[in-house]
Amino acid sequence: MANNCSATSKLQAKAPPLFFFVFLMRFLSTEAFSNTPLLSFFIHHVNSPFSLGRASSSFLNNCVPLHISNPIKTTFKQKNSTKSIHCPQSSMTSLKMCQLMGMNCATLTDFSFSLRGFARRGGATDVHSHGWGLCFYDGRGLRSFHDPDPAAESLLAEFLQSHPVKTLNVVAHIRYATRGEVKLENVHPFSREMWGYNFCFAHNGDVSLFDRNLFQKGKNISKQLQFTNPNPNNNLSKQRKATTYTKMAPFSSSSYTQIPWIGKSIGVEDPGIRYYNPIGATDSETMFCAILNALRARFDTLPTLPVLHAALSALCNEIVTRDQETMGGNTILNFLLGCGPHLQFAYSWPGAREGSDVWNGLHYLVREPPFRSAHLSDCDYTIDFSSVTKEDDRVAVIATSPLTDDEDWVEFERGQLILFDDGVPHMAPEDCEEVEFRNHGLVSSAIPAAPSLEVDMRRYRLRTSFFEGSGI
Asked: For position 236, what pLDDT does the model report?
């Protein structure tokens, strides 16, 4: 399925390495270069043998520059077309919180259409100018792009829009910095390996529980926080078999900071050690590491998707409860979690920052036959999907706020966790059985598999009757 009006580009077999292209783009974006005649030469010869890819039908191959005083703010018009692609500098909306975008697809799909509008929010139509990132799965591999510069001015973002790449699963983020400096290590999405899978995570919101300023003095605040399980019948929360750990001698408070522990909701006590730790200084990355630490400690076999959905739901509820009751936080928790080439979890606990009337939640839509046209809300650009799709195409798009202004978007309910697979939303744990039957469950040689779906669900008592009235 195409997400742009042009066909997907095929890169040359002997193209230069990506780091060379990024270095060249950085140089080309300097003010000194933009004032030289060499800029015009570069734009007109962008598809020379020295370019990253020679696309026979790429966007840049079908465009001529209308204005070249600045390569970032160039307005393009398609050859042999009366339509212009014009992205004006709109007024700021003061939506002072990061924004998320995800896509999950039934067939290989390019994400350039959605990215074109989403990137405009990174400093052009909105204030999210503190970096951007995007991760997409290529088989079991994960390709990651991160830039501390505004997405609306990023040549790397422009490259991804102009050279469509196809994938089944993508997670993207534009940043408005509230915790952590504007540095590359603080740019989402974050990624880690667990169970032989690449997990990637992007967060929008405010969770004081994971603010490093509150525990950087060497105090393990997880020992001071208590959590009451709201669902005592959940077998996930029952005490696991006791495990003995050898604790290391304490470090000095000036050199050692231990991130908070979560996991009581799924029956895992604090072992005193942390396998995953943040690299940057954001509450988002700290929370991601805490979630993975809890899941890794809880499961000694690969969980089936109904069980994983239930565990993530419990952990999200634990985070919100602890943040509100012990930290007094105005909790806003929205995230996207990529779990391999097919699966993406999305969770929303929406809210508005104090003094702001801007609502931060999550919305989604599913595009499937019969397809029609769509118009971006941040960029005057329309595409007729019926002309570039097939009958087996289906795409779910998730975003902080709707990316188009002529489609029906659905807002997540408070506390809702949805698993997307093949572009289909699965709302509850029992719905995830269907994904297992499509053979899209977790499979890895790094950890033993569950004996079977039935056995795994029986171990954790996951049945329809269990979820009725549970509030999960």
From this structure: 66
What are 193-226's pLDDT values in tens digits? 999 999 999 999 889 899 887 766 444 444 444 4
Q: Which residues have C-beta within 8 Å of that of residue 36, sequence separation ≥ 6?
A: none
Question: pLDDT > 90: what percent of the chain?
Answer: 47
CA 71 centroid distance within chain = 28
pTM score > 0.90 for this model? no
Residue 290 reports pLDDT greater than 50: yes
Question: HSE (CB half, 13 Å, CA atoms) of 284?
Answer: 33
**353 or 5, which is more confident?**
353
Residue with tokens 């074109």: 116
| HEC per residue, the chain | CCCCCCCCCCCCCCCCCHHHHHHHHHHHCCHHHHCCCHHHHHHHCCCCCCCCCCCCCCCHHHEEECCCCCCCCCCEEECCCCCEEECCCCCCCCCCCCEEEEEEEEEEEECHHHHHHHHHCECCCCECCCCEEEEEEECCEEEEEEECCCHHHCHHHHHHHHCCCEEEEEEEEECCCCCCCCCHHHCCCEEEEECCEEEEEEEEEECHHHCHHHCCCCCCHHHCCCCCCCCCCCHHHCCCCCCCCCCCCCCCCCCCCCCCCCCHHHCCCCCCCCCCCCCCCCHHHHHHHHHHHHHHHHCCCECCHHHHHHHHHHHHHHHHHHHHHHCCCCCEEEEEEEECCCEEEEEEECECCCCCCCCECCEEEEECCCCCEEEECCCECEEEHHHCCCCCCCEEEEECCCCECCCCCEECCCCEEEEEECCEEECCHHHHHHHHHCCCCCCCCCCCECCCHHHHHHHCCCCHHHHCCCCC
